[in-house]
Design brief:
CATH superfamily of the largest domain: Winged helix-like DNA-binding domain superfamily/Winged helix DNA-binding domain
GO biological process, one term: cell differentiation
Number of strands: 4
CATH architecture of the largest domain: Orthogonal Bundle
Main location: nucleus
Radius of gyration: 20 Å
CATH class of the largest domain: Mainly Alpha
CATH topology of the largest domain: Arc Repressor Mutant, subunit A
GO molecular function: DNA-binding transcription factor activity, RNA polymerase II-specific; sequence-specific DNA binding
Number of helices: 6
Family: Belongs to the ETS family.
Subcellular location: Nucleus
Length: about 170
Amino acid sequence: MDMGETNAFFFGKLEEEKFVDGILKDIENSHSKPMDQWENSEVLEFILNEISMKHNKTDCNNHLERFQCISGKRSEKLWEFLLHLLRDNKTCPQLIKWENFEEGTFRFVQSDKVARLWGNRKKNENMTYEKFSRAMRYYYKSEVLLPVPGRRLVYKFGPQAKGWKNISPIS
């Protein structure tokens, strides 16, 4: 390791320590009981919330998923991407919209634009709706996404899609 790499390594460690110190200070200031009396779940919840807010990753559902989203260890799944579009008033109802929230059905308003957004996310400039819909079909067998028979561009979240019922729909 040369001197530049050594400095970068230690500077990175110093920044990590400052970040952790900041979280610990926030913990002390924000909780009604001393930290040594916290349950493990309270500590984990607080740390994940702090890191999520600092990295603008607040839409993951459980601890493992939130950690994976924050740390970048897991890429976003296509059905999660669709759910994010349905949660965002910039894309819902302009590009995609709920047909029936209670049933989990949604419709593509501008399917080609949604496909291009997914292509941008996956660094694939040649994404088309045909390729995008093929990727969606991989979720049919696992019952995460399902087609709605007889309805063009209408799909539904299946029983294996987690977390979509916990959001407030945008009309």
